[in-house]
Amino acid sequence: MDNPTAWWILAGFFVAMELVTGTFYLLMLAVGAAAGALAAHAGLPQPWHWVAFTVVGGGAVVALYLARRRLGKRSAADVRHDNLDLGATVDVSAWSADGIARVHYRGSEWSARLIRRGPLHTGAHRIAGQDGNVLLIEPLPAQPTASIDTNARHNAG
After folding, report:
1. What are the φ and ψ backbone dihedral angles of 138, each rounded to 5 degrees?
2. What's the gap between Cα 134 and its chain centre?
3. Residue whose C-alpha is closest to residue 28's, from 2, 50, 54, 1
4. Does residue 153 lie in a domain region?
């Protein structure tokens, strides 16, 4: 592949595949293919095109891998800062038969469900997570007020 156009086509292929798959590593290979194209434009012999592709593209892949591995380790405090809703309290006034409550939070109504199985209590709950647009809540330890037996209510209806 000593034609610079072939290297640019390969770079475009890697970019297109990265857009389809979302794999950032393919973008690094596209940078390597661009280096191969520049080597071809410079008039270097064909083996040097491959060396440029391998060194630049492979080096970028390795550098990205190491950076993601080093930066990918996040503490619980980092995750907490990503979702500022965690730890906020909401008031549950009623539960539906399927274990979903409607709570008022941040000026609108949200669906909420318990983060783990257990009795359904009304009163104050803490936001412990989020699943899409459903708040995952847990009762505050000292605040459960009224327990609702969902089996009895479901069997009565």
Report:
1. -140, 145
2. 16
3. 54
4. no
| Full residue range of the structural domain in which residue 94 is found | 80-141
Joined together, the tokens standing for residue 108 give 């609108």
Quote the pTM value.
0.48
Does residue 18 sit in the same domain as residue 63? yes
> For residue 124, how many C-alpha atoms fall within 13 Å in the half-sphere facing its CB?
7
Q: Mean pLDDT for each 10-residue chunk of the chain (157 residues)?
A: 87 94 91 96 94 96 90 58 78 89 90 87 88 88 56 48
CATH (domain of 108): 2.40.50.140
Measuring CA to CA, how many Å separate 69 from each of 6, 14, 55, 65, 72? 33, 23, 21, 6, 5
d(Cα 142, Cα 147) in Å, to the nearest integer? 14
DSSP class of residue 151 equals H
- Which amino acid belongs to residue 12? G
In this prediction, residue 143 carries a pLDDT of 47
Are 86 and 64 part of one and the same domain?
no
Q: How far apart are CA 85 and CA 93, in angstroms?
A: 20
Instruction: Measure the CA–CA gap between 69 and 48, rounded to whole angstroms.
Output: 31
